[in-house]
């Protein structure tokens, strides 16, 4: 839309394009301004020459009056070129001059039109008032013998009203064009802001997902690697199984990392990467997504933690886990995943109690409880629980974590479950 408005910008007068109030006189004439000014000058001169032979007045002074009228009228036509620099002053001068010069009446109307178009109400009212006050004097000096005085006065007032009305219409139209241009520019800025915001939100979502997934996989790798380090005398079968878990976990972590890097590259907006017009969300939607975790896959997650050596007591109090909404199940899965990951990091040899309960209308409650200490601690970034809190709040739920009354660490969340 902005392009269409700016395409016709040259049609706007220079005084209405970019110049601030009080500095319009310094603006150079646009192409349209030159065309209009030349046309106005030729129109004023042409109409002045037509009316020059119809000058009426004192019979004894016809020739001198006609000569003076032509000289003054010619100067008034030339003065039209100054109407953009001093519109109000020129309009007042030409109004007074046109009282004694019939040929200057057309330039005076042009100056009045300029004031109506480019100046606010008060200067316009002043110029119109001066025109109305000088009108009786003009009619006395330049009467039309073919028309009654009242009729000539009425016609003159109607001419003034037509000029003022036309000028107000042109002013309103130009202001509408400027308003549309401003609105289009604002819409363009707003659209760019929305695109940037969508990219940021999508990257934050991807960062949360990757933190949950990679932290879980890397913690498993750390546990098995630690077992190999501290138990070199393990049976070959256990060593092979731990090595297989490490190999498989590293492969899956690299695959997750490649996917997120590819999504971020496609949605980065870098023309060299071909992502200039796509957000991260759009880029992600163009790629075949892997199956997302649900509440029904919690048992596999628990079993994976048990194989890593964590004792997990799992209590699932949901009638049909497969019937849980996809978004609710995915967020509950991520909360449990982060809770088990934190338990492995900070209490690797301690048992974990996991409870998931709820139903439609009452919401879904997730609780992970484990001792504060136990085993060797694995360093972490400290942002996992913050991300979980934001995840729960985005769903309209809540998340709490900290020491429980019995001294253990408790992670609890409630997520809304629509009926």
UniProtKB/TrEMBL annotation:
<keyword id="KW-0067">ATP-binding</keyword>
<keyword id="KW-0808">Transferase</keyword>
<feature type="region of interest" description="Disordered">
    <location>
        <begin position="265"/>
        <end position="293"/>
    </location>
</feature>
<dbReference type="GO" id="GO:0016020">
    <property type="term" value="C:membrane"/>
</dbReference>
<feature type="transmembrane region" description="Helical">
    <location>
        <begin position="124"/>
        <end position="143"/>
    </location>
</feature>
<protein>
    <recommendedName>
        <fullName>histidine kinase</fullName>
        <ecNumber>2.7.13.3</ecNumber>
    </recommendedName>
</protein>
<keyword id="KW-1133">Transmembrane helix</keyword>
<dbReference type="GO" id="GO:0000155">
    <property type="term" value="F:phosphorelay sensor kinase activity"/>
</dbReference>
<dbReference type="GO" id="GO:0005524">
    <property type="term" value="F:ATP binding"/>
</dbReference>
<dbReference type="InterPro" id="IPR036890">
    <property type="entry name" value="HATPase_C_sf"/>
</dbReference>
<keyword id="KW-0472">Membrane</keyword>
<feature type="transmembrane region" description="Helical">
    <location>
        <begin position="149"/>
        <end position="170"/>
    </location>
</feature>
<dbReference type="InterPro" id="IPR011712">
    <property type="entry name" value="Sig_transdc_His_kin_sub3_dim/P"/>
</dbReference>
<feature type="domain" description="Signal transduction histidine kinase subgroup 3 dimerisation and phosphoacceptor">
    <location>
        <begin position="202"/>
        <end position="265"/>
    </location>
</feature>
<keyword id="KW-0547">Nucleotide-binding</keyword>
<keyword id="KW-0812">Transmembrane</keyword>
<feature type="transmembrane region" description="Helical">
    <location>
        <begin position="90"/>
        <end position="117"/>
    </location>
</feature>
<feature type="transmembrane region" description="Helical">
    <location>
        <begin position="34"/>
        <end position="52"/>
    </location>
</feature>
<keyword id="KW-0597">Phosphoprotein</keyword>
<dbReference type="Pfam" id="PF07730">
    <property type="entry name" value="HisKA_3"/>
</dbReference>
<keyword id="KW-0418">Kinase</keyword>
<dbReference type="InterPro" id="IPR050482">
    <property type="entry name" value="Sensor_HK_TwoCompSys"/>
</dbReference>
<dbReference type="GO" id="GO:0046983">
    <property type="term" value="F:protein dimerization activity"/>
</dbReference>
<keyword id="KW-0902">Two-component regulatory system</keyword>
